[in-house]
């Protein structure tokens, strides 16, 4: 396991993840605010899972963590980290299967990844962006401590429409203050 929380393993993708990965990425509600188009074929999912499994989390570029629920022993989603060339900042994104949403799993996974980026890997800044209509992602980012840094109106042309993008950021010293506050209560 790369990371562990009370309820989750954040690990490399494995071949047995292909079916579940294809299933949740094929859900139109999950794909709505993402760059891919549903459905995702098993062939495409197998290729992506293979690429993810071969990734290196310590190298610049994207690395995708598989979110596994400990109790159920199943894939529930993924968290992607795009490590900058300078190895001092990263961007993240996340996706969770619909049946596991609303139970705090995505927040727990994102918090664990951000903690690792700041506390073990020494990042200075972690950022994220999302479609402004994606209220659940906005709430998750703010719950973890990210601050809204900007709005880019009609910035992205995706799936036949212009969408507004929200920009979020979190600095290591902000993270330190928020975790100290969390630990005090």
UniProtKB/TrEMBL annotation:
The keyword Acyltransferase applies. It holds the Pfam family Acetyltransf_3. Its EC number is 2.3.-.-. GO terms for molecular function: acyltransferase activity. Keywords: Acyltransferase, Transferase. It comes from the Bacteria. InterPro entries: Acyl_CoA_acyltransferase (IPR016181), GNAT_dom (IPR000182), N-acetyltransferase (IPR051531). The keyword Transferase applies. Residues 8-173 form the N-acetyltransferase domain. It comes from Microtetraspora fusca. This is GNAT family N-acetyltransferase.
